[in-house]
Amino acid sequence: MSSGAKVLTKKEQNSSLLEKIKPHLELIAASLSGVFIALGWIFDKYGFGTDSIIFYLLAFVIGGFAKAKEGIEATYENKELNVEMLMIFAAVGSAIIGYWTEGAILIFIFAVSGALETYTMNKSHKEISSLMELQPEEALLISNGYEKRVPVSELRVGDHILIKPGERVPSDGMIIKGQTNIDEAAITGESMPVSKGEQADVFAGTVNMTGSITVQVTKESSDTLFRKIIQLVQSAQSEKSPSQLFIERFEGTYVKVVLLVVVVMFFLPHFLLGWSWHESFYRAMILLVVASPCALVASIMPASLSAISNGARHGILVKGGVHLENLGHLEAIALDKTGTLTKGKPEVTEVLVKEGLKKEQLIWQAASIESHSNHPLAIAIVNYAKRNVTKELFHPDSLEDIPGWGVKAEINGEQWKIGKAAFVGKEDVDQFADGKAKELAIRGNTLVFIEINGELCAMIALKDVVREETKLAINHLKKQGIHTVMLTGDSEKTARAIAAESHVDEFFAECLPESKVEHLKQLKAKYKTVAMVGDGINDAPALAIANIGIAMGGGTDVALETADIVLMKNDLPRIADAINLSQRMNKIIKQNVIFSISVIMLLIASNFFQMLDLPFGVIGHEGSTILVILNSLRLLKS
């Protein structure tokens, strides 16, 4: 054995084994309970009645311990009886009148249904556990030219860290040196690695695939996007839907009514219907079993958790069952334009050059001038040139920035002017390229003009282009009967062009944050349930006032914190997926509630007419609970 190998002590081995068994303890206890019931039945059948009771008692204690503990603790804390207590009373009552097998089977099936509920919870919590495992514990800090391994919690904004190929990114940051491919599946769900170079953002939990990179930390470990995802999933699992809250309030009153009716049934049938005391007690015990609302109580929570877990797996983070439930009733949705319907950055859509000039040469020279500016339009022109021109950009002989208008430059004795229409002459612009400027402007383009030695030579059209998936997403929403509205701070002309291109039903232009809130209020007055989709700080008030706020995962921290649902991949079609998931969840909850109430009513009626024996009452009641939970687990599937 190598000296570096770690030898586990017996105590550590036992602890490790216990950790593996712990999630399955309820199922193991239920299985043992079933084994003891089988042994009790065999002993009873072959005339060892006294010995069989020992096995039944073991089945009671092992199978019922978890639920009895849960019921007693909840009763003590809330000062109110619950379903678990009803089941304990029913099982003990069955044993008192000699129905040991039926009482033990009741405990066994109740334990199995409890194990299934725990399985659903564990499956949901598994999303967090798998996320937590992706968070590196250490980082390679570069300080004064030296490398040092430090805990991630010790990293501070501005620190430089080295991330080697194959390592996970320990903190959100910006690449300051190196080029690599990053696997961002943990954040976006996208399987294809993303190529990233200097100035590109990287996120904690993602994987550096190919090259070594030096990253400047931009967020504290507690504020990373990865940490926010974990917090969102945790808050979603702890928040209950309106249906769940109603069932929990209803449960306490219902249990009291059932116990009261059971007590009445001990005596009333004996005096009014002439039943024997044994028959009255027997029927009261069956009533106690079949009237317990176990299936009804299990109708909602497993379905809600399964749906939230499914959504998290597909990049739809829901902060609670209430929001997912509401999403299924959506009637109208308002969407911010910039960064939501569009990419949020201008792109060159068309370049028109005067006859006799070479387009590639002119773009190369214009981009060389614009490369000295940080203006978004200048950056878009430079990016366009890098994609379409093979030559390296150069430094012009002279350069002068004219704020609000454009830029002047000199190249090999030529005087260049690049900027807005008024900067180069409005009349020349109107006549250039047969008046194409007007047509491009109507289509929502921003125009940049190039003048060389006093002559208008080229026009570049730029636009914040609509995302490729936007039309698909809007069309899906329309098919679901949802009214779509675009809210933007842009001019009426630009807004109209983008609205037509993205297929929305309605748009409002020149919106300030407060006017977005006003439009949301008007939509809420007209439609029952309204959602708002946004990504910026200016969208936060509207996200807060909407019935459901939906943030794009790449948006600002404020938007992410204000929203009720986060789309991690910035993928608008996921909204339609989320609505479908919500509708599936609501449908399954409805099925569960109707089925469980129907079974309870049927069993109560059968018992009153003396058509139902205790074994069938136990199987009918507990079987319905298991069916309801299994029906809810269907939501875990995609």
Automatic annotation (TrEMBL):
GO molecular function: ATP binding; ATP hydrolysis activity; ATPase-coupled monoatomic cation transmembrane transporter activity; metal ion binding
Limits of the P-type ATPase A domain: 133-234
Example of a GO cellular component annotation carried by this entry: plasma membrane
Cited Gene3D superfamilies: Calcium-transporting ATPase, cytoplasmic domain N, Calcium-transporting ATPase, cytoplasmic transduction domain A, HAD superfamily/HAD-like
Main location: membrane
Transmembrane segments: 21-41, 105-122, 254-275, 281-303, 593-612
Compartments, record wording: Cell membrane
Key words of the record: ATP-binding, Cell membrane, Ion transport, Magnesium, Membrane, Metal-binding, Nucleotide-binding, Phosphoprotein, Translocase, Transmembrane, Transmembrane helix, Transport
Membrane topology: Multi-pass membrane protein
Pfam family name, one: E1-E2_ATPase
Stated family: Belongs to the cation transport ATPase (P-type) (TC 3.A.3) family. Type IB subfamily.
Entry protein name: Cadmium-transporting ATPase
The organism of origin for this protein: Neobacillus vireti LMG 21834
Lineage: Bacteria, Bacillati, Bacillota, Bacilli, Bacillales
